[in-house]
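ok trying again, last paste got cut off:
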Amino acid sequence: MRELNIGGLSIPVPIVQGGMGVGISMSGLAAAVANQGGVGIISAAGLGMVHRNPLLDFIDANIEGLRTEIRNAKEKTMGVIGVNVMVAMTNFAELVRTSISEKVDIIFAGAGLPLQLPSYLKPDSLTKLVPIVSSGRAAKLICDKWKSLYDYLPDAFVVEGPKAGGHLGFKRNTIDDPRYSLEELVPEIVREIKPFEEKYGKEIPVIAAGGIYTGEDIFNIMQKGAKAVQLGTRFVTTEECDASEKFKMTYVNARETDMEIIQSPVGMPGRAIVNEFINKVKNGLKKPIKCPFHCIKTCEVSSSPYCIITALYNAYKGNLKSGYAFAGSNAYLADRISTVKEVFNDLITGFNDALSRFQSAQKPGTDLTPD
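nice, full thing came through this time. structure:
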């Protein structure tokens, strides 16, 4: 695997750990990934639940929680640390400003178009900016807007396909449509951003995400033009993951048929592991709630049968009767709890094996074909 460059920031191993809230990817997991040469990401979503403070409301506790997690991660690693911030969060601007003031290496922003993201940078800011998109059109729009308004281009793009876990940037009827697969999206986005790279002399690497689980998956998607990959699900079943043991075991015990698309209260489809809580929601046994936090701009409070932040926090703590686990389409492949180092070794070995097979297939006189 080749070193990844994001805005002049060198990353030895082109593996980015996906941001997973609430509490699933905090400083523990992020630092462990960074120590292996990848990019460790802290999810800013719902940290006010994890870092509760009786003197602060949820929004302020979220800010203080993010500051604490960034500082904790930096104490544990000299590697690259990023923060994932959802554009749809009501305190998006404050979370971004906090991340920049704490000198986090990279901000990854999705769940909406982060059209004003560069406006939060200061003249001395070192933080790199990476939007998360699900189409070439969105990537082009962001490049156009950022360049015209701020004379700034994205330092990279994460393209998230429909096999990802959590909230998905697709309409429900396109999730299983091959035209929207990651294998189709990556080349599309590479094509859309190439004119900007050539005109302004800046490399904008594409990071592929969603359904990537093995080293062979990494090799195959890099053949489509990706310079790196983002994995979330694969890192959940590690000792260093910040979630509870019960949360991790929902992955280990899951079957392929347990991966289900649900409708989230935030107005987007999402992929989760079906359980008793989700079945109660489907059967109308959960009643509409009053919003206690006002954390997501798009949350359909008037019709929502539950608070998603509370449900995800309950799952993080291991109370799966009152919540559920978001997960990527391949979560059922997990069969044990390993370490982050073991995951990296397995991914690199699998990548090298796929590369060797591909190279053998290129030699004259062989009948092998590349995967």
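cool. The chain is about 35% helix and 15% strand. The chain has a mean pLDDT of 92.
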